[in-house]
Amino acid sequence: MSVWTAAVVVLVWVYAGVWGAERFAVTGLAFPGAATSVAEFLGSVLGGLTSALCVGILAVIVLTAVPDEQGRLCHNTYRLHLWLQRAAIVWLVTSVAMVAIAASNAAGAPLPRVLAGGALGDALAASESARGWIAAALAAAVVAIGIRFTLRWLGHVLLLVPAGIGLLAPVVTGNAGEGPDHDIATSTAIVFTIAVAVLVGLKITVAVRPETVAPVARRTQVVALVAGATAVIYGALLLSTMVRETAVLGSDFGHIALAAWLLLLAVTVVDLVLVWRKSAVRRAVATASAAAIIAVVAAISTLAVLPPPRFLVHTFTIWDVFLGYELPGPVTALRLVSYWRFDTLFGVAALVLVAGYLAGALTLRRRGDTWPAGRTVAWVIGCLALLFATSSGLRAYGSATFSMHMTEHMVLNMFIPVLLVLGAPVTMALRALPAGPKGGPPGPREWVLWFVHSPATKFLANPIVAFCLFVGSLYLVYFTPLFDTLIRYHWGHELMTLHFLLVGYLYYWGIIGIDPGPRRLPFLARLGLLFAVMPFHAFFGIATMTMNSVLGSSFYGHLSVPWLISLTDDQHLGGAIAWGASEVPVIIVVIALVAQWARQDRRSGARHDRHSDSGYDDDLDAYNAMLRELSRTRE
């Protein structure tokens, strides 16, 4: 063991002293010294491994746990819970250290000098990577603290959110978020990183504690295959983006990336054979797969501190820095429809949601169950609208101009959620997804039920809470410095897309929702809740139409779109779009709400008629019951 340890130390020091200095030289940056370079390399690898392990373990717990009646974990997954506690602490400590280390490397000065000279604040301001590690440290702290206070399945589901944010923060603020085509690279890196993290959790668990996944071996094999195939496809796309304009094997970056991709491919091929033959995983195969995935994560973390070859040969433009692509010209209806940059995150998600929903509808039809065609049409149109909003010229121009951004916002926040809610996806899932075996681990149907009826979902889906989120977030995003940050980066656009969709869905779920969920308000109250939003949207539109200051002025000013004569005029146009476009979704919602109201009245009338035909009258029965009670009281 001491020989191997010494070999690793020597290799790391050689990397820092020779390779590390070389990578700084080719980028024209000052070399911070071997010690700081070693710390960056080790911190990146350890931070990548521990963050992936935390997300992976959480995913394994969610997939394999057999909770008791109170929702607490079973004894097998409790051991994974203990692993998670330790891994989260290491992740937190590493992320905190990497904040200062990344800032020192960006400043080109040794870490002790930066810390002693009081220049850490300036170094942090100049380093996007350091700010990414700050987000990772905060997320790791939430996971490390939160895991101490929950033993429930749902608690681990909710911890996936901060864990995922911490996992992705250093990724989207690194190489993937910079340079030409960084919009495609960022979305691709998000999916790739999550898929690899799931593989890390599954492979290490199968290798170290196979009894944990034994009751759901087939399920975990299929999930591992899907995650591996996703990582292989997205990894190839990400690699092609990073080495474009150069030869893949023409740099150390290309060598490491290709080796990692081939390891991923080998692991995925093995998983495919196991699933195809329905074979159990042997201990040697499980150990080899776990070692391969750890090596892949180490290689990915190494690539995070190396400059991609494309950055060294490409002549950067202002479009590359701020957008990642160059727009073909001024906004026209034809360009909005014809100019596409496919979003590998939400574009793929839209297609997967359509395919999954249609598969569920086909399952119900084969079973002899009916499913309203209107719901299918609403869902499909909503998903296709999501594809268009995130991958067409609407997103491309929406990232560059405020007016098109507000058009995209209205589609994502007020139009698409209405259609998705009318599609009743939860009801579809509960009817089409399989349930777990009796006495065995829960299945997808149980997961959906638990999540829909969880306290967190009940709180967020409460009509008043959803209303406050729907209205308040509009002002919070645009009338604070938050918008300046989100509009600058592609990860900010993806985050806004997710936020607008979720907030809009929660709001309209409480008004026209068909799925089981929050307690429904009376129809008149729902109508009032719908119209209560209109003054807030009107005020927002008027405010943006009349203010002299420009929202996102730093970004739009630096981008300097050549055909935009006035940023103020473009903002005023965006405000007019926000004000006027909000009326179209309201009309759709009112029609849906009136239709639901009329349908309920018909059902109530039919029920009353059946009672009358049977000789029953609800009002008369209630009156007679009251008389009998009064008679007994007098006696």
TrEMBL record:
One Pfam family this sequence matches: Caa3_CtaG
Keyword Nucleus: no
Signal peptide: none
Transmembrane segments: 44-66, 87-110, 130-147, 154-172, 184-202, 222-243, 255-276, 288-306, 344-364, 376-398, 410-430, 459-478, 498-515, 527-556, 576-598
Keyword terms of this UniProt record: Cell membrane, Membrane, Transmembrane, Transmembrane helix
GO cellular component, one term: plasma membrane
Bilayer topology term: Multi-pass membrane protein
Subcellular location, record wording: Cell membrane
Keyword presence, ATP-binding: no
Protein name: Copper resistance protein CopD
